[in-house]
Amino acid sequence: MKRFIKTIILFFIPISLGLCILEIGMRAVPNSYSFKKNWLDKNISSVHIWSFGSSHGLYGINPQYFSKPAFNSAHVSQPLKYDAFIFNKYIEKADSLEWVILPVSYFTMTSKMELGTEWWRIKNYRIYYDCPYHKYEPKYNFEIIGNPLSFYKQIKRVGRYWIKGSDDNSCDSLGFDRGYSKENRGDNWYMDGPQRAKFHTNDLEKSQPVIRENIACMETIINNCAERNVNVLIVTTPVCSTYYDCVDSAQYSLMIRVCESFVRQYSNVRYLNLFKDSRFVEDDFHDSDHLETEGAAKLTGILDEYISGLSSFSGQ
Fold first, then answer.
1. CA count, 13 A, side-chain hemisphere, 42
2. Are the C-beta atoms of 197 and 247 separated by less than 8 Å?
């Protein structure tokens, strides 16, 4: 029996060691989460305009086109819960902050990452941002467990970095992701609107706890900004007609009601709904609900002009 136990132990030691090495190797590969965390650690005090949000903000708001120093803290599928986490983590050091841009999309109020198909992204906040949520749940604390890539692809990814220097960071120096260009959009990109709108539509009755949680997260950010005389611009980014023609009217109305309620309640908040804005044409989009790089420049220019026009507006 002792020999059997010893054999088992000897068998698992190299496996465990290999897994540990792979985990360390995966964490060493630079990505957008580690990049943005490190950037904020060093530069948050210089930021005047700070934007958040999911992929609509990540691919749609380019800090380069603001007239004041800005940074984009959005990530793919990032919900309000993690917007609030990043905001709260760095707000005490944001000495120059004047505006927070908070994108709220059609799906924002009814979405919770833990309940969706992209739950695995939570480990990026745990590992790279040192987020306290889900501290004792293994699937949110290890790349090996929480990464959707196959074991083979994980090894290949680490190898590419250590051998060729290829990393996973697709953001530029100010946090904008240039991955959604005209050149790499699919052949039928414009026609995916019904499918994407359906995917983003949730049962409002079942979503009530999630809606309340998201409203509370928005309130946390807005309250904190009000206390610091920081202005908040809530923005709903534009989409194609193939998308907005297929949204659920009740869910869309909920989004507008929530955003407008904050405008009425707080003097430091403005809401800009560009969901169906006619200034955006088909060629501005990468797919039915994401802007491509030139469309992002157009959107950011509009936001900058709007903010500049409110230069006398104060959160006091």
1. 7
2. yes
